[in-house]
Amino acid sequence: MCLIALAHGDRLVLAANRDEDYERATREAHFWDDAPDVIGGRDALHGGSWLAVARGGRFAAVTNLRGAMPRGRSRGLLVSAFVTSTATPEAFAASIETEQYAGFHLIIGEAGRTVVYVTPGETPRILERGIYGFSNAPSGEHWPKVDLAIEAMKSIPADPTDDLLRFLGTPRNSGRVEEEVFIAGDRYGTRASTVVIATEDDILFTEQNYGRGGVPLVRRSLPCTMAP
What we know:
This protein has helices at 76-83, 89-95, 144-154, 161-168, and strands at 3-8, 12-21, 26-32, 35-43, 51-54, 58-64, 104-110, 115-118, 125-126, 130-135, 188-198, 202-211, 215-225. By secondary structure, the protein is mainly β. A 7-stranded antiparallel beta sheet has the order 3-4-5-6-7-8-9, covered by helices on one side. The protein has a 6-stranded antiparallel beta sheet with strand order 10-1-2-11-12-13, covered by helices on one side. Strand 7 and strand 8 form a beta hairpin.
């Protein structure tokens, strides 16, 4: 996943693009067979995920970092491990052995409650209520597409799914990865745009999938009630 916008308040709004090789085996968004209360796509290679949410409101999303050296474990396992665990976001963040993974930006939390940001080399940070953006820029480097994502999140209506999916799926044709929200390539590109809206009562998980060249494929909306 290469772009995440987060509105953290009484409700959670999460909008994200996953950029990946088209050849990488992937399962589109679904309720997981081994964790039926979890919704998300799944990396068929290692079993992790780039973005997932559980009925209790636990959620996680991860991006890679451009230029990060490969390590032993898949970053997506951090997402699947958190949403299927009972650890608090703070405890889970403190337990991560970051040296086992290639560089990442990881956001984990519970909708309407605590949200934590984790990246190697920095102390995990609790995010105050507000709007945030993350890309696959190296830690400490700022990319313009993050500003675009934050501005899009600031202007969302009460029912933002269609507006945010339109934002996520629109190429800017800038020619620079630092500015490009949506990538339409032949080998590599945006494979999924996802919007999650979680209130104290309901969760709506919507995913638009894309094929080579940015061709729209299946769109799924997976609603569920918030678990007590």
